[in-house]
Amino acid sequence: MHKENNLQKVLTDRLLSPTGKGLGDVSLQPSIAATPQLGWNLLEEQVSLPVAVLSQTRIQHNLGWMKAFISTYGLKLAPHGKTTMSPALFHQQLAHGAWGITLATAPQVQAAHHFGVRRVLMANQLVGRANMAIISRLLQDPEFEFFVIVDSAANVEQLGQFFAQSGQTLNVLLELGVAGGRTGVRDPQTRDSVLDAIALYPQSLALRGIEVYEGVLKDEAAIRDFLRLAVRELMTLEAHSQLADGQVILTGAGSAWFDLVAEEWTGVTLGRPLDIILRPGCYLTHDVGIYKAAEARIHASNPVARAMQTSLLPALQLWAYVLSIPEPGLAILGLGKRDAAFDAGLPIPAMHFRPQNKVHPGSEAPIAAPADWQLTAMMDQHAFMKVSPDADLQVGDMLALDISHPCLTFDKWRQLLVVDDHYTVVDAVETFF
């Protein structure tokens, strides 16, 4: 516990950057730990807009929701950290029972380790000597557990030779893939070539199990078939004594289909300890786009989710000013591609607030934005919002916008503010993309 507290202190002792965006007055360079004492309130215009904010209440709700869901199925959770790349949020996930953190690149693993994450599943191929060298250095820490996926004999041979030279053993998972998908072996011949290559390096490579990413498939029946194939492949590996002694892992599940993975894999046994690990990452902040649609499907079909009688809640919002109303029916917001994801749909106006000033009376509290207010385009720093010609909107008004695909919003912010239900800033978290 003492070591964990020290790691948390490393994060909270870092300073809020005077060169960052979406912050209040940081001229005195306060530490992150001092954020609650600054007294900033978003609605009182004590924070520079645009700003990305996290709802403290909703983050805690989502952490508890996923912990309850995973626990009901008796599985383990290694949320994908690339969603936020925020070690402060990683530690909250670990404190809520996560087995470890999933990451995608060697530098991401290095950043997580630097801030105290000691168990990582890299759901990607480790290719290139510099990337291998990063992992090799981290493996010198005896408390660090690391697992990586492989899907080609060529990569296996490169890893086997590198880690043999370093005198280390690398834990690997065989990745299964599908035609037209992303990575992963597609056929028995490729699978066997990978397994044969692993067998050539018994001192430097330890085969620990199977990994899949089912999110490349869009059909429920196809996903279930794929998940069942993964179980059969794992059983075959065990029957042929191809798995290393000790820990065995079966892992899958992005943010859209984790319920199917839980349903298909719960109850799978191997005759020895087996960790079945799900890897959704976007549950932490959720969204109002692609993952909201997935959640609706989950609640319609999954009995555990229905029994919980609550849902994941969108916890990430962007706030921006109305910069200009250059013509009737058009408002220009101070927010753009530098601030928000736009690959899965443009941000959606959610709330409208008019600050108090000497010229116009302000609002008591934010109100729901009219349904016909809609973003139609974004440039680097500007968003075009279509409104009715007689819309009650003024330059200087504030808009809260919901987003789709939180991953590509997080990576546009080095600091995000955490707010309470009254929009008072109670914390800040950093990202390390």
**Main structural class:** alpha/beta
Shape: globular
Give a count of the beta strands, DSSP E runs of length 2 or more.
18
Number of helices: 12
Task: Give the topology, please.
Layout: H1 2-12, E1 51-55, H2 56-73, E2 76-77, H3 87-95, E3 101-103, H4 106-114, E4 119-125, H5 129-138, E5 145-150, H6 153-165, E6 170-176, H7 188-199, E7 205-212, H8 220-239, E8 248-252, H9 258-265, E9 274-278, H10 290-301, H11 303-308, E10 316-327, E11 330-333, E12 348-353, E13 367-368, E14 374-378, E15 383-386, E16 398-402, H12 407-410, E17 415-419, E18 425-430
Parallel strand pairs: 1-17, 2-9, 3-4, 4-5, 5-6, 6-7, 7-8, 8-9
Antiparallel strand pairs: 1-10, 10-11, 10-16, 11-15, 12-13, 12-16, 14-15, 17-18
Helix pairs in contact: 4-5, 6-7, 8-9
What does this structure look like?
This protein has helices spanning 2-12, 56-73, 87-95, 106-114, 129-138, 153-165, 188-199, 220-239, 258-265, 290-301, 303-308, 407-410, and strands at residues 51-55, 76-77, 101-103, 119-125, 145-150, 170-176, 205-212, 248-252, 274-278, 316-327, 330-333, 348-353, 367-368, 374-378, 383-386, 398-402, 415-419, 425-430. Helix 4 (106-114) runs parallel beside helix 5, helix 6 (153-165) packs parallel to helix 7 (188-199) and helix 8 (220-239) packs across helix 9 (258-265). Strands 1, 10, 11, 12, 13, 14, 15, 16, 17 and 18 form a 10-stranded mixed beta sheet that branches. The chain is built from 12 helices and 18 strands. Helix 4 (106-114) links the parallel strand 3 (101-103) and strand 4 (119-125). It is globular. With 433 residues, it is of the alpha/beta class. The mean pLDDT is 95.
